[in-house]
Amino acid sequence: MSIPVVTLGAAASAHVPGLEQLRGPVTVVRRCDGLADLVAACQSGLARAAIIAPGAVELTASLVDRLRFAGAAVVALTDGAPGPDPVDGVEYVGATVEAAVLADAVTRAVGRFGDGSARPKGSLAYADPLYQPAAAPPSPAALHAEAPAAEGPGDGRIVAVWGPSGSPGRTTVAINMAAELAASGTSVLLVDADTYGASIGASLGLLDESAGLAQACRIADQGGFTGSALERIAVSVAIKGARLRVLTGITRPDRWPELRPAALGQVLDAARSLVEVTVVDCGFCLEADEELSFDTLAPRRNGAALRCLEVADSVIAVGGADTVGVPRMVKALAELADAVPTAAPRVVFNKVRAAAVGRAPEAQLREAWERFGPTTGIAAFLPVDHAAADQALLAGTALLETAPASALRIAIADLADVPVTGRRGRMPGPRLRDVRFPGNPARLPR
Ligand SMILES: Nc1ncnc2c1ncn2[C@@H]1O[C@H](COP(=O)(O)OP(=O)(O)OP(=O)(O)O)[C@@H](O)[C@H]1O
Ligand SMILES: [Mg+2]
After folding, report:
1. Per the CATH hierarchy, to which homologous superfamily does domain 3-119 belong?
2. Half-sphere exposure of 73 toward its Cβ, with a 13 Å CA cutoff?
């Protein structure tokens, strides 16, 4: 069957007669007037490939992502060589080639793309099904081995720290896990990908107005983003003599369109080759309502979180340990399972305190959790410790510097699989009243 294609730009239109004469593999169904026309044509399902002339449009990873999501493979005509930074997923071919060569390139591009019918449902659509990390993601493993063997380039792991709304402590967990890993000798990049309330820069006392992640995404969108480019953009923070690389988040919430999923995917690919572990603080929201919008290039606010969760090797889901936090976590996990079925989150309850759930809070939480019926167990309980958390915030650093002996620090180090020397015994918890955790499962919506 002939492949329907659309063209954009004069050099692409010039091939139309030649392609038609072939009476074969390719049929030109539309010569597009501009970018909006091109995207609209692809989104309407008209074409399975787009032939784009040199200079007709700025070919970015985000644009290619949108076209591919719409079901169209991209063939870019070039004046010479493709240039130093080819965009992933694009088939490049000289602008002056014979029609038959161009038709072959289209066939190749479409073949690589697949038949387009396997378009994922729901918000998984945020991840182009054809999106391939530069390196095959390693199998989920412990975050840290006792003697971390230096991994080859591209083998770095990505840990997404995510969780429901209500400030359960995602950023605190992300910063302190990253700090523990860095201090133990692992090379670590900490990334703030929260599109609602980025706060890693402020939490680490960085007077950084540069929004490192947005800057990295901007460059990555042009293609050819590497670990060394990332190295130049990330700021370094010294933690207990070790170095923690940080990509700060957007400086204002309205800058969220700068964190386009395709570009963010490239940044995380580059991170795999730069460091052993990348810890990403994700936003909480996974809603995919924007997907209903047919605005051609409409960016998606939650696309950044979704892309992080899709490419992550492990996901830490942080929730508040109280009667509001537990049901929220249950709902959030269900949303996560819908949005990113491949994610296998480790559930962590933070700010664990007897005052909120009753005596023996861990047992209470476990019992309540089991009543809910989620198959995921609870991986860790992090105790409340306002003094330690505030002290670290005030000093703009991690708990291992300001409160190294605190139970909160030790619990986060455990979560990161980092051995802590000279640890104290059990976590202290205010032994207050015996407040029963709500016993009626009906109150805990599934
Ligand atoms: N275990 C804890 N004990 C006491 N305070 C804590 C604990 N964990 C976090 N906090 C404090 O709770 C507040 C919210 O934490 P954090 O910013 O990490 O949450 P978040 O989930 O990232 O929130 P946001 O919705 O703003 O992204 C901060 O003031 C932090 O210091
Ligand atoms: Mg946060």
Report:
1. Response regulator (3.40.50.2300)
2. 26
Instruction: Quote the ligand 1 centre to 325 CA distance (angstroms).
Output: 13
Rounded-to-integer distance, Cα 232 and Cα 227, Å: 9
114-119-125-127 Cα dihedral, nearest 10 degrees: -20
Residue 171 CB less than 6 A away from ligand 1: yes
Ligand 1, atom nearest to 203 Cα:
17
Q: Where are the domains of the chain?
A: 3-119, 157-443
Question: Mean pLDDT, to the nearest integer, of 137-150?
Answer: 35
First to last CA, the chain: 48
Q: What is the DSSP string of 134-147?
A: SSPPPPP--S--SS
Q: Is the pLDDT of residue 134 over 70?
A: no
In tens, the pLDDT along 172-201 reads 999 999 999 999 999 999 999 999 999 999
Shared fold status for 3-119 and 157-443: yes
Structure tokens at 61: 């990873």
**Residue, of 135 and 265, whose pLDDT is higher:** 265
- Cβ-in-10-Å burial (0-12, 13-18, 19+) of 238 comes to exposed
Tokens of 141: 């493993």
Mapped onto helix, strand or coil, the DSSP state of residue 41 is helix
Query: Closest ligand 1 atom to the C-alpha of 383?
Result: 1
Most confident of 34-48, 64-78, 238-252, 362-376: 238-252
**Ligand 1, atom 24: closest residue by C-alpha:** 167
Kindly indicate whether the domain formed by 157-443 is annotated with CATH number 3.40.50.300.
yes
* 386 CA closest ligand 1 atom index: 4
Work out the number of other CB atoms within 10 angstroms of the CB of residue 277: 26
Give the distance (Å) from ligand 2 centre to CA of residue 383: 18
Distance CA 50, CA 72 (A): 6
Give the residue with greater pLDDT, 136 vs 309. 309
Residue 52's pLDDT is what? 96
Radius of gyration of the CA atoms of the chain, in A: 24
Cα–ligand 2 centroid distance for 167 (angstroms): 7
Q: Which pLDDT does position 61 carry in this prediction?
A: 85
In this structure, how many other beta carbons lie within 10 angstroms of the beta carbon of residue 204? 26
In this structure, the residue with its CA closest to atom 23 of ligand 1 is 167
- pLDDT bin (cut points 50, 70, 90) of residue 140 is very low
Token pair listed for 404: 């190294």
Give the Å distance between the CA of 210 and the centre of ligand 2: 18
